[in-house]
Amino acid sequence: MNVIIDNFLQYIGLELNLSPHTVTAYRNDLGQWEQYLTGGKENLDVASVTTSDIRAWLLHLSNEGHGATTLRRKVQAVRSLYKWLIRNGVVSFSPAEQVELARLPKRLPQLVRENTMNTLLDKEINEQDFEQVRNRLIVMMLYETGMRRAELIDLLDHNVDTSKAELKVHGKRDKERIIPFGTELAQWIERYRLLRNEKIGTCHYFFVRDNGEQLYPMLVYRVVREALTQAGVNSKRSPHVLRHSFATAMLNDGASLNGVKELLGHESLATTQLYTHVTFSELKNNYKLAHPRALKKGG
């Protein structure tokens, strides 16, 4: 990879404290961009790149089937690179600034209904099997704390305190927050810890694989997808869906918008407000299904 791009990746990782997962995403996007512009045969001259070059790349990606969300993320990666280049005097302008970001469709977050999650989490498993208990706890913790997949993977063992019923996570830009949890989750945590310590020993990370190594993103995704598939969920089945489900359940049960914002680790209240549209949509649906006047013909 281009030395300039590599230096930029070190900057966002070491100085901006972006997570390793975010740095990897930037590396993939910028590497793909460089590969397209050079054909992999030469180093990219960042000063010679034009707005037309970037638009051609985006058209190529669109023709390959990439959606608006992916295209926006890739443009943002290139923009961030050029902002850094301008600050360091490498270039005088950014060819990415004139590129319009793809419009995102206005879609409400997908979620799993509370009764489905209750059925899933109440299903009996072999409580002496390390992997089954760990996988159950992964799903339970994502749903009952609203943490991100990356936060769950990076969760440190000493930051999970069952005596206080709270855990500390490192969110985006390495910001810490405390998340409380209930008695049932505390019991599953103790059950998992006992099995883990018997099988592997004391661990630095809370969640580990059979060999004691840290989890990786695709493993967590597969655990969640398999659990939701077995529960009969046919829509999107990802760790982030459980985060959406947590936020919606909290608001439906009377939690304050600002409280949910803090639990989720959102920077802006506007991001959390999206879930109020979901809860209102649920209310409308419940009204149409249950209210006697709504059930009347023409009601």
Key attributes of the depicted protein:
three-stranded antiparallel sheet, mainly alpha, DNA polymerase, domain 1, hpI Integrase, Chain A
Topology (elements, then pairings):
Layout: H1 3-15, H2 20-38, H3 51-63, H4 68-87, H5 114-122, H6 130-145, H7 149-153, E1 160-161, E2 166-170, E3 176-180, H8 183-199, H9 217-230, H10 239-252, H11 257-264, H12 269-290, H13 292-295
Helix pairs in contact: 1-2, 2-4, 6-8, 6-9, 6-10, 10-12, 11-12
Taking pLDDT < 50 over at least 5 consecutive residues as the criterion, the unreliable ranges are: 289-295
Number of domains: 2
What's the story with the biggest beta sheet?
3 strands, antiparallel
Shape: elongated
Alpha carbon gyration radius:
23 Å
Number of helices: 13
Distance between the termini: 63 Å
Q: What share of residues are in beta strands?
A: under 5%
Order of SSEs: HHHHHHHEEEHHHHHH
- The appropriate CATH architecture of the largest domain is Orthogonal Bundle
Determine the CATH topology of the largest domain. Answer: hpI Integrase, Chain A
Q: From the helix content, strand content and strand pairing, which structural class follows?
A: mainly alpha
Mean of residue pLDDT values? 86
CATH superfamily of the largest domain: Intergrase catalytic core
